[in-house]
Amino acid sequence: MAWFLLFLAGLFECGWAVGLKYTDGFTRPLPTALTVISMVVSVVLLGLAVKHLPIGTAYAIWTGIGTVGTVLLGVWLLGDSASVSRLACITLIVAGIAGLKLTA
């Protein structure tokens, strides 16, 4: 269950990271509210997950999911670059996350 909570926390991290773009500097109320809610949910779920997982592993995986998800959503939703080098770096992050999961 802790791994599932950690995965959800990572997804909510993607939500608030991308949500920042839509807040327009926190001037748009609905995107701002959704972004703040995503922040809180993400941190609460991370807190629940680390009750049962090593903090270093959980934090690295949480930020990894957030990083990879945010990059992919940036490409898909915001037209960010999808260059070969960026995708190769994402692959390295995913390999690191898998390694941490396998050794935890």
From TrEMBL:
Cellular component per GO, a single term: plasma membrane
Q: Name one GO biological process term.
A: xenobiotic detoxification by transmembrane export across the plasma membrane
Which InterPro entries does the record match to this protein? Answer: EmrE-like (IPR037185), Small_drug/metabolite_transptr (IPR000390), Small_multidrug_res (IPR045324)
> Which segments cross the bilayer?
33-50, 57-78, 84-103
Keyword Ribosomal protein attached: no
Against Gene3D superfamilies, the record matches this protein to:
1.10.3730.20
Q: Has keyword Mitochondrion?
A: no
Q: Give compartment(s).
A: Cell membrane
Q: How does it sit in the membrane?
A: Multi-pass membrane protein
GO MF terms held by the record: transmembrane transporter activity
Please give the superkingdom of this protein's source: Bacteria
Sorted keywords for this record are: Cell membrane, Membrane, Transmembrane, Transmembrane helix, Transport
The UniProt similarity line reads: Belongs to the drug/metabolite transporter (DMT) superfamily. Small multidrug resistance (SMR) (TC 2.A.7.1) family. Gdx/SugE subfamily.
Q: What is this protein called?
A: Guanidinium exporter
This protein's species is Rhizobium vallis
